[in-house]
Amino acid sequence: MNEASPIIRIDNVTKRFGQSVVAVSEVGLEIREGEFFALLGPSGCGKTTLLRMLAGFEIPTEGEIYIDGQPMTGVQPNRRPVNMVFQSYAVFPHMTVFDNVAYGMKVTGVAGPEMRERVEEALELVQLAGFGDRKPDQLSGGQRQRVALARALVKRPKVLLLDEPLSALDAKLREAMQMELVRLQHTVGITFVVVTHDQSEALSMADRIAVMDRGAVKQVAPPADLYEFPNSRFVADFIGRMNLFEGKVVNANPDRLTLAVDGIGTIEVPGPPGTAMDSVGVAVRPEKTRISGLHPGNGQIAIEGVVEAIAYQGNESHIVLDLGDGARIAATLQNSSRTTTPVAAIGDRLWASWAAADTLILSD
Amino acid sequence: METWRRNPLVFWIFLVPPTIWLAAFFLVPLGLIWVFSFGEKRGLVDIEITWSLANYVRALEPLYLQIIAKSLWMAGLTTAICLVVAFPVVFAISFAPPRWKPILLLLVILPFWTNLLIRTYALIAVLRTRGYINFTLEWFWDGGNQILTAVGLGDLQLLGASFQPLQLLYNNTAVVFGLVYVHLPFMVLPLYASMERLDKSMIEASLDLGASQARTFFSVVAPLAKPGIVSGLIITFIPAMGSFLTPNLLGGTDSQMIANVIERQFKSANDWPFGAALSFLLMYATFGALAMRSLLARGSPGTEHGA
Fold first, then answer.
1. β-sheet bridge partners, residue A213
2. Which fold has domain B54-115+168-307?
3. Architecture of domain A241-362
4. What is the Cα A305 distance to its own chain's centre?
């Protein structure tokens, strides 16, 4: 990973629409050169507005955006060293594939053999060689998206912006396209900034992810860190599945925390030194939760409950235990051999347990 | 719908009255006029149908061809000006906040709620020698003179000895001005419809790829709005070509358009056969324009989605 100066620096940017609507609130981010960066969040979290500010279609109300060290205030979209792949692809329907890809060069005066060569090269890059004469309405959705990619990449931008690039594709194609985008990014070495609401998309493609909620960036981290060490209830809940309980710190030792957790009781976990906050979220991932008929023994946090639901999903099964008082815990079991399948039936009393070290303590 | 299909009686009850209405009050009279165009005037009200083409031959005399050419020119100029004026208006409405759009569209069609005659007389009040434009100019002239007097240059009469009002009425310019004013909504509405259908990210994509605003307009917006542009051109041109009130009231003696000639044949000249021939020539021209429209619209994007 390149540790040089960031290609994009978002410096305390706020975007308000009208007087009351705050779409993006005091966001500070640095995106490194050559990085595959994802802006992830639920709809309305401001991720698309942030991307559109990078492209120049929205103007920050406060703050400054630097691209390649240059402040972008007052720089029109057609003068920015970035290109965008739109959610609707926005492939020009009245032009052939070739003309679509050539458009960005024609308007800036690149012509002749150089232009043709670059168009062919870009079409080859997105595996559309030989499609130059087609009209967009003769292409599938996936192919149209490749045209949009080629059209943007042929400009050799410093940064490629992608707005929900996979949302319009069906599930199978989406998975293939994820791999394709990663391959493409490695080939061209251009910084990619992708906006998505789909956490699995972000996890599988991005080098780093910024999770956004209500206009603010909640956490910026590589996918594994984000998944295993979320810093807030929002991130923990938004990324993957999570058993989330509310609790209180009753005793904070230098390396151990004693917690009173609603629905579970008192547990002791290895805690970050010196943490002594009052209310905390206590969380554990379902796939780190085990189900057993007998108490699993010491060293594990264990709780007894009644099986409420079992969802068989082929590769894995989800089991939900009712812990009483409205509290529930879910566990994911890998069906790793043909005979592992039903370990439980609805109504069984079973133990849910996990290693104390897998417990997440969330202050935010 | 299903029950309608199963019960043809309902279908016929709804279909027959409008059909009779159309036949009795539109097709039959139109047919009569068509037959008249092959007739000859005999006396004050008598028309004898001789199936001669004399009326059409007369309509092609240089005098009338000139008037037709002039009408084509004035209607064409009107249509072109409407297109140039309508595009910024359409852009403004199309990019306005959603709650403003209905109000702005209403403002465009509001003049339709007023009678054409009244609107035209109102225009006369603006344009005439003692109208608002000339009043405004005179006010500036007075002001300019007072300033000149104040700085001691009043005696030089730099702005002329007295105010000369502009002759804005009773000429071809006034007619085109009036035609543009009347027909602008016909251009705005179809253009607006096709701009609304246009995916705005097309415009953003063009800018994003480095194109200027002007380049984006000519390379992306105009081609994609082509169905609307063609519709607008046609439905502006046709009524402009056939207008007679505007040239009658705003035009001078040489501003006659073909519809004025037709009107005169039916009224003061009392030559129905010749008027009928001229009318049908105008209608054939209209059909020609419509045929051109469908030719132009063919093969352009968006038409298959109903343009």
1. A216
2. MetI-like fold (1.10.3720)
3. Beta Barrel (2.40)
4. 33
